[in-house]
Amino acid sequence: MKIVHEIHLANVLAIVLIALTGFFSYQNLELVLTKLRFAEIADDLNASFLEMRLAEKNYFLYADAGSLLEIRKKLGESAQTMDSVKDDIIRATGEKNYVQLLSSLEGYLESIDQARVSGYPDAERQANIREAGQRLREFSREITKIERTKLNEIISHSKNQLFTFLCFILVSAISISYLFFLHILKSLKKIEDITHSISEGNFNKITSGIPNDELGSVIRAINSMSEELQIREEEIIQSKKLASIGILTAGVAHELGNPLNNISMLAQAYQELYDNLNREDRLDFMKKVEEESERIRLIVNNLLDFSKPKKADQKQADINSIVQRSLKLVQNMIHISNIEAQLDLSDNLPPVFVDEHQILEVLINLMTNSIQAASPGDKLTIKTCPGDREDYIDIVISDTGKGIPAEILSNIFDPFFSTKGTSGTGLGLFVSYGIIKSHSGSIRAESEVGVGTAFTIELPIYHEDKRS
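Structure (tokenized):
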């Protein structure tokens, strides 16, 4: 069911429940009003009946015929009143009680009329008048008492009924809202999971439990987007591979071209000058050829190290110890360069899961670069601390050297890219980048010309479930 339909259904249910509450409340209030109207009528009738009884006593005491007329007048008024509100009385007390009350009224009227015709009544007739009046009075008072009791019961019942109904509505509303939002949150959780997965480069799709509503449409759209992103990523990776091959090929050709040209020139010169060369000159030529050949060998070895890296022997290690060891290995360079080295190592860092020798190689390479970029009096700082990302430790190697221009900062990890001119192979950072990536870490650089450069390495901490 669509969410909009669920919302409409929830609204309809709420309206129905509210309407039922209103209907029952109206019915109860109408009954209460009916009872109250009867109570008012009964009070008026009881007051009239009381005045009749007083007039009746005056008649018996003083034989005042005017009292009978007064009684008959009030009986007539009471009869008219009962007739005018007959429906209300019947609705409040029932037709049987109305008939009985009217019968009592007529019996009392008949006794009064007989007394008027016969003059001052004898003892028997007086007793009949008293009995009829008392019966009318008692019956009216009893009905009034019963109806007041019923009125209190109706009010109490209505209050309890209304409270129960409101509790039912409240529980129903909470239950419906909980189920409705649970359904929405469940779908939103799936959307959150798949978006996190996509952001991490995992283009998994949700294939089961997709609701047939708007959120289901969103999930299907994200699945389609994930599939399309995966295709696009594969295309981008392929194009980057081709571009990298081109860059690598050009770099290899350039780097190998220089020593090969030198060897070729040395060989030609050696051939032309051979007869005029003494033994030392010939050895000097061969030494230069050997140096150029060694340069080629180093380039080829670096390429092989990157293309076929050694399998990392990762295990539990203390990163602060690795940093201290690497600093000792470059201490002589620091002393010769006349720069200041400073360690800022956080205490109680959890162990990392690394190949110590490979991380040592990366740190020495980065420290060497910083030392070579620094001038006498500059500072080299090596810092360790908990990473910005959970389960990672950061190593920050910063210097106050000349810095790297912003336009070339993004290229420093490319193969054969070097800021050292002919004195560098351009493979150090390239290989370091590959080592850190193989450790499921990351490396990034920040630099400002004239201020310095900072390299940040993120490495995963050690967990018991890791296997060496």
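The beta strands are 315-317, 340-345, 352-354, 379-386, 392-399, 442-448, 452-460. The radius of gyration is 54 Å.
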